[in-house]
Recover the amino acids of this structure.
């Protein structure tokens, strides 16, 4: 015999939009050693990695100190959560952009190595090839991504000092306004049925 149907409300499943983590930044952005190799190979600026990290750590700590009289403990945590999240998100975005630039540079370089492709030959005398320009662009993006990684790491370290716990990204619920609208429409239709 079958069990009678019950009208139990189904549990609500809330999707979360995952924020970028420091680990994601470390996977996509060059570290100090790689940034130095890029700078030496391409003649770009040598970034003061430790200086950037320390400056951003002090910046967040000094910001928290100046706000400490006006913000409660929980408000300070929320405020710093957002600020540090912005640094980490920016670094992660730069790291992803750098990864795409490296892929494009590798593809262009591989195509240029094929002697039977006229469109990938070097440009006129005095101009770089398209592959060379893509490699140089990727190098610039690598140095920038590294600098933003250092800023993010400094902000994360400061968060730990001020709040007393490790920073974690805030996973916010995915906005789905259509679902709420559908639910309201269904309720209105059922109400009309009596």
């Amino acid at each position: 015999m079958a069990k009678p149907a019950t009208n139990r409300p189904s549990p609500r499943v809330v999707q979360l939009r995952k924020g970028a983590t420091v680990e994601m930044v470390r996977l996509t952005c060059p570290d100090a050693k790689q940034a130095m190799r890029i700078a030496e190979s391409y003649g770009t600026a040598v970034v003061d990695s430790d200086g950037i990290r320390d400056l951003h750590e002090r910046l967040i700590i000094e910001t928290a100190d100046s706000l400490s009289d006006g913000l409660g403990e929980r408000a300070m945590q929320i405020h710093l959560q957002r600020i540090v999240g912005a640094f980490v998100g920016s670094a992660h975005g730069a790291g992803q952009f750098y990864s795409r630039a490296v892929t494009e540079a590798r593809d262009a370089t591989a195509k240029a190595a094929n002697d039977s492709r006229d469109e990938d030959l070097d440009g006129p005398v005095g101009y770089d090839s398209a592959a060379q320009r893509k490699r140089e662009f990727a190098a610039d993006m690598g140095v920038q991504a590294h600098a933003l990684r250092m800023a993010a790491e400094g902000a994360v370290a400061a968060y730990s000092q001020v709040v007393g716990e490790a920073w974690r990204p805030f996973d916010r619920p995915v906005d789905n306004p259509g679902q709420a609208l559908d639910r309201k429409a269904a309720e209105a239709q059922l109400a009309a049925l009596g």
Residues 69 and 89 are 28 Å apart (CA to CA). Strands lie at 16-17, 172-173. The mean pLDDT is 82. The two ends are 31 Å apart (CA to CA).
